[in-house]
Design brief:
Elements: E1 2-4, E2 11-13, E3 23-24, E4 31-32, E5 38-40, E6 47-49, E7 52-53, E8 57-58, E9 61-69, E10 73-80, E11 85-92, H1 94-97, H2 100-114, E12 124-130, E13 133-139, E14 143-145, H3 146-152, H4 157-176, E15 179-180, E16 189-192, E17 197-199, E18 206-207, H5 231-235, H6 242-250
Antiparallel strand pairs: 1-2, 1-5, 3-4, 6-7, 8-9, 9-10, 10-11, 11-13, 12-13, 14-16, 15-18, 16-17
């Protein structure tokens, strides 16, 4: 019998498991009580997002597990078949893919990220569409988010100084190229196992194009996270420029 790991959603076999013992997920390495897992029908792989299961192919990638979900869609861990490497894939929500406005935002994210090459910014690898599903392929960051890190312990001044300056450098790099993040928060800052901070999820990025016809954000739509949002950004996203990112990083 197989059950679903409650931590990462992967299927776990229960063969020869003693009653009352815990099992360890081969995918995420975390242990759990089998009674807290969801029983899966024989031969059925866990569903990652509606219509996509573990082992499914999306373009040239094999899907493996759910990393997280956000407003635009889900982020999945996958294997790139051509190079046999791990990647992270952001899949746009199916209902949003039918909305031209959200599709345009997704395309803007791909274009904005494609212009960036910096050691402290999560790199974009590819983008595509498969069976009506838009997706963005990014480098896989093996580590934790800053939110997870600070929830475990309060950062010392020395630890903070190891994280903040590289992020300032990354934002300056992006701003010089006309890209504003507009949603800087601990969840969007990833820390690798080696301690390298990387800014992730430029899903709300806007190319600072002076041509109004190329601006994607609607004037009365507010994008970002309220706890880290600059005062002018609360009034209208159109008011947010690179200074909003600096404000959010300081918060």
């Amino acid at each position: 019998m197989d059950i679903r790991c409650p931590h990462c959603g992967s299927g776990v076999k229960l063969a020869n498991t003693a009653a009352g013992s815990v099992v360890e997920c081969a995918r995420c390495g975390r242990s759990f009580d089998p009674r807290h897992g969801e029983t899966l029908p024989p031969g059925r792989q866990p569903e990652l997002v509606p219509g996509l299961h573990v082992g499914d192919r999306l373009g040239g990638y094999v899907l493996e597990r759910l990393i997280g979900k956000g407003g635009m869609g889900a982020v999945l861990e996958a294997t790139q078949l051509s190079l046999r490497r791990r990647v992270a894939i952001k899949v746009l929500n199916a209902e949003l893919a039918a909305d031209p406005h959200f599709v345009e935002r997704f395309e803007a994210e791909a274009r904005a990220l494609a212009t960036l090459s910096h050691p402290n910014i999560v790199a974009v690898i590819d983008r595509g569409i498969d069976r009506g599903r838009l997706y963005l392929v990014m480098e896989y960051v093996d580590g934790v988010s800053l939110r997870e890190l600070i929830s475990e312990h309060k950062l010392s001044p020395r630890e903070a100084l190891q994280i903040v300056p590289p992020l300032c450098d990354a934002l300056e790099y992006a701003h010089r190229r006309g890209v504003v993040h507009r949603d800087i928060k601990p969840e969007n800052i990833l820390i690798t196992r080696e301690g390298v901070p990387k800014i992730a999820d430029f899903g709300l990025a806007r190319l600072l194009d002076t041509s109004a016809s190329h601006r994607i954000t609607r004037s009365n739509v507010i994008m970002g996270s309220l706890d880290y949002m600059a005062p002018e950004q609360r009034d209208s996203t159109r008011n947010a420029d690179h200074r909003a990112d600096i404000y959010a990083l300081g918060v």
